[in-house]
Design brief:
This protein is of the alpha+beta class. The chain has one domain. The chain is 49% helix and 17% strand. It contains 6 helices and 4 strands; from the N terminus they run αααβαβαββα. α4 (40-57) links the parallel β1 (33-37) and β2 (60-64).
């Protein structure tokens, strides 16, 4: 992991996005978010092993040192869209869809598809 990754205040980031992703702060505080350096092969390997291994340990994986180009991040997540196990998102400090919830560095986020869909459905019922 690069020195700059250690300088990011991830606690502050997860607090800042709690209103749009309330479960992320709890997962972070419980140590259920794994931070790993991004590699294409690593991302694919995690996707394949997700049901057996990762799901039991982590709610999400944050891939650090992801590509700095938002178009490339979008393409990576699009290529992983057909995964039955996971949903992929990306965030970049220079890109926002208007909510200003972007991460402090380029990242790819991998989350459990069935669990995330269940949580989203439950949240809709409470609104």
């Amino acid at each position: 992991m690069e020195k700059k990754d250690l300088e990011v205040n991830w606690d502050q980031y997860f607090q800042s996005i709690a209103r749009v992703c309330p479960w992320s702060l709890e997962s972070y505080n419980q140590g259920r978010i794994d931070f790993v350096p991004y590699t294409w092969s690593g991302l694919n390997a995690r996707d394949v092993s997700w049901p057996r291994l990762t799901r039991a340990e982590f709610d999400a994986v944050v891939y650090l040192a992801a590509p700095d180009d938002p178009m490339e991040l979008d393409l990576i997540c699009e290529q992983m869209e057909s995964s039955p196990h996971c949903i992929y998102f990306w965030s970049h400090p220079d890109y926002t869809k208007g909510g200003y919830n972007q991460s402090p560095e380029p990242i790819i986020i991998q989350q459990d598809r069935p669990n995330l869909l269940k949580v989203r459905k439950a949240n809709k019922k409470h609104k």
